[in-house]
């Protein structure tokens, strides 16, 4: 049945890359044909939990046996796994595909963009904001979160179920129309069902577009199936089956979360050691006018611009609200946001609990086995992000005067590739002129994560940043806490003691 998803497992007698043979010798044409077969069938490979090679003969070994599925298969069996079993007298190891459900814990609330297509959504937001006018913004967001969850369960409903209900209604009335003319009420009923079906299909597309992170597709195109496929592939790619630590594999959800907290607590733990002091260095310093511009009162226009510059499609932090929500409900909530930002300017303090973040683990390798093979990206809350964005935009104005011309990254108007191109030209010039030269490349391990907060403040002081500005940065950096997302479920929360969070606008 061409409409059914495929699972294909067995001996393909071919490899894709040299690393899949012990000898590293492969057939280029065979590898191309194999890759074309995978692409044409739209297959996803399921990697084994442990082990790599599946065929052994003497000193020879190869990865010949594999498991491929089409994305639709993973929709029905999202926890599909593969084991390489012990060999019998055969040269090939048997493969065992199995699916086992594991409870990774509760998933955090997320505001769904498709809710905004329903007229009741904005009504709920306005009512919660009006009824709780004396509450703080974090409290209002918590109340709104509960109201939206209840509304989603009772009235908005499950998108696929609503689509199915509309389709069945249309099909039922079409069957009646086969035998007789529909009456006026039936015609209206079918028209309403078709209109509702279209509405729910657009909501489904919006939901899967957000989950797929395919941001280059223009909104309005009918790509629900495409988005669904991308979301399935993305979820499978990022799914953590087990983690390897101290020579053993850990696969239980609770143990993996504990290991994640221990690992990242160590990464972000303060090191108590004597650091060298770089006295006598001539840092570029801010002028008086630049200092004044940094600590001037925040204007409403500045806050509006900071909000407008935030990507509405980015995943939310622990509060669950993204900038699609912020921008869509701006007229309702902006006065409270203005007050939060103005209070921060006056006191230097952030609202309680708004500086926590989720650490999302992005694989750095195709098959990560340890936490060191993931890139930790922090997803901060919307209130903190607005304040951090305002500070970052102010900082951009003076960075050109502080950072030397040879620092090519992280400065507006400069490109990180400039340094690569210059280095390439220098090496090429030395080779052509036959000059001797030494190239030294320094790679700082965990450069973002290991920055000392005391050293950061010392550098800011050397560059003549005002005391008020430094207190704002301390508040943003030193009050941070985090939880690690493991397959969509957060670990316990821990405090950060050093480092700058990748994903924080200030970083």
From TrEMBL:
Gene3D superfamilies: Endonuclease/exonuclease/phosphatase. Keywords: Nucleotidyltransferase, RNA-directed DNA polymerase, Transferase. GO terms for molecular function: RNA-directed DNA polymerase activity. Residues 343-507 form the Reverse transcriptase domain. This is Reverse transcriptase.
């Amino acid at each position: 049945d061409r409409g059914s998803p495929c699972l294909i497992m067995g001996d393909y007698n071919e490899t894709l890359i040299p690393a899949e043979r012990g000898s590293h010798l492969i057939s280029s044409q065979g590898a191309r044909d194999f890759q074309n077969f995978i692409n044409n069938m739209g297959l996803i490979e399921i990697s084994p939990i442990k082990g790599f090679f599946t065929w052994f003969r003497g000193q020879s070994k190869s990865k010949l046996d594999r498991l491929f599925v089409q994305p639709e298969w993973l929709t029905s069996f999202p926890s599909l796994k593969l084991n390489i079993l012990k060999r019998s007298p055969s040269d090939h190891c048997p493969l065992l595909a199995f699916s086992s459900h594991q409870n990774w814990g509760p998933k955090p609330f997320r505001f769904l963009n498709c809710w905004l297509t329903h007229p009741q959504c904005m009504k709920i937001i306005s009512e919660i904001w009006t009824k709780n006018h004396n509450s703080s913004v974090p409290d209002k967001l918590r109340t709104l979160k509960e109201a939206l969850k209840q509304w989603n369960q009772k009235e908005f409903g499950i998108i696929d179920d609503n689509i199915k209900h509309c389709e069945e209604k249309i099909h039922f009335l079409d069957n009646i129309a086969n035998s007789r003319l529909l009456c006026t009420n039936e015609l209206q009923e079918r028209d309403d069902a078709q209109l509702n079906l279209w509405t729910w299909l657009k909501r489904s597309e919006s939901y899967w577009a957000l989950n797929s992170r395919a941001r280059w597709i223009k909104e309005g195109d009918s790509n629900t199936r495409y988005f669904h496929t991308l979301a399935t592939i993305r979820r499978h790619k990022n799914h953590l089956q087990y983690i390897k630590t101290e020579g053993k594999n850990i696969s239980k959800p609770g143990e993996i979360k504990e290991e994640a907290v221990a690992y990242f607590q160590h990464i972000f733990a303060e090191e108590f050691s004597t650091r060298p002091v770089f006295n006598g260095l001539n840092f570029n310093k801010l002028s008086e006018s630049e200092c004044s511009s940094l600590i001037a009162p925040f204007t409403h226009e500045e806050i509006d611009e900071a909000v407008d510059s935030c990507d509405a499609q980015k995943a939310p932090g622990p509060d669950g609200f993204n900038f699609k929500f912020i921008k869509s409900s701006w007229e309702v909530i902006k006065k409270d946001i203005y007050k939060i930002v103005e209070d921060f300017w006056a006191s230097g303090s952030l609202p309680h609990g708004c500086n926590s973040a989720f650490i999302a683990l992005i694989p750095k390798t195709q098959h990560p086995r340890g936490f060191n093979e993931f890139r930790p990206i922090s997803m901060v809350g919307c209130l903190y992000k607005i304040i951090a964005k305002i500070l970052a935009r102010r900082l951009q104005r003076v960075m050109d005067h502080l950072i030397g011309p040879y620092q090519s990254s992280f400065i507006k108007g400069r490109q990180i590739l400039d340094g690569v191109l210059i280095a390439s030209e220098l090496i090429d010039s030395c080779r052509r002129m036959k000059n001797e030269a030494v190239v030294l490349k320094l790679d700082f391990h965990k450069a973002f994560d290991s920055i000392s907060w005391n050293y950061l403040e010392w550098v800011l002081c050397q560059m003549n940043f005002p005391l008020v500005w430094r207190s704002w940065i301390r508040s943003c950096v030193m009050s941070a806490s985090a939880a690690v997302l493991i397959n969509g479920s957060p670990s316990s929360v821990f405090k950060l003691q050093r480092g700058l969070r990748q994903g924080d606008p200030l970083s």
